[in-house]
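Q: I'm writing up a methods section and want to include an example of the input and output format. Could you take the sequence below and give the corresponding predicted structure tokens, formatted cleanly so I can copy it straight into the document?
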Amino acid sequence: MKPKRKTDHIFQRPQSSNYYVRLRDANGRRFVQSLGTSDYQEAAVKAHAMIGEHKARLFAARPRVETVWQHKMEPGREHAGEDGGKIIATDKELIHIGHNGAIVKQEPNGGIAHRLVSRDPLTAYGVVQALLNAEGEEFGPVARPTVATKTSDDALLETYLQHNGIDGLREKQARDIWHIFRTVVNKPLRECTRDDGRAIIAHLEAGGEIKSATLHRRLVPLVATVNLAIKEGKLSIVNPFSGVVPERDDEEEADPYSDDDMKLIRKNLHRLDKSDQLLVRLLATTGLRRSEAFEIDSEQKETGIRFVTIGTKNPHSQRRVPFPADLLPYLPKKITGQLIPGRMDTAGKRLGEWLTEIGVIKPDDGRNIRPMHSFRHRAAQRMRAAGLLEDVREAVGGWAGGKKKKTSRKYGNKHGAGYPLSVLKKAIDTIGF
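A: Here is the clean output for your methods example:
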């Protein structure tokens, strides 16, 4: 019988009676494994050893304070002493011998010291937590961290969030990078230089090199906050965080889903709940970005064609997207509220686990599959294979309109209006499911 209290590691998927265990491997990567039974007690027994190893790895990886003996002088050697004498250093003792060969005094060779040990680079928070965990008679009480005093710069962040209507995951990301700025730099924005921007980059990469596109994305809220403050006359500086990410040729394009991948996806779609099934169909048949999929909360109709205006939060990608034939049977008769409920980050994790479970994602086969974005690359590939003109493909996918696009693609197609819906509908129908 399943206990009333839900466990963290053992769970059931929607539409499946089997129990699964969710853990992290020795490299810290998350994985899900079926326990091959619908009986909770049997599942708990099967998972017991795996969960124990998982917790042991987590404990071993925690920052900790080690007690060591720190020598005052290198043991096993004679050292020069006072007045022509010498000092014999053992592992625990220093023996002072005068010039006449008599022992003058003896004292400990050093004493107990403490050092922080961590598998990963320690943040300031990690240091404090390690000290708190080690708190005892040898250390005495350790002061707990205090909340930083709010400044006028913090008000600039709040203005940026409110001005752009940012909430949910995007708000969390903005506050995360702001916290890093306050922790790493911790000085007024008006005094910041590009070296401070580079210090933030160095902090972000402390655990290993991060792709430049990811660094750009992480810094966006910080750069945008300063830009808005400059625009409104609250700061008179050159943005110290703009353009500080090093240019690297490290972009790794996501692989599109293959025909074999799509066969597995169609075959196992029933294992997802209804909302995730619709999300998969929506992404696969339209090539929408994941943020765009979660943006849909209404629809329009023109010349009998149902469509949605996408990209309202980003003018470079704003466009009209007709609903494709393979998606229409699964849509509500009319969209009058958020089409895909929930959070897009947790949906991405669910789809990643499902795709791994059904064999589409195989971490060791060398492919770069990203649960949501690989549908977008498949859409571009399918439209290209259908012989569609490049600017038509870009009008459907929202790739046109950026600063790096040539003028012939950027202008004359504002908001996807450069082509009638009938043309866009025929184009998007070639993607299929």
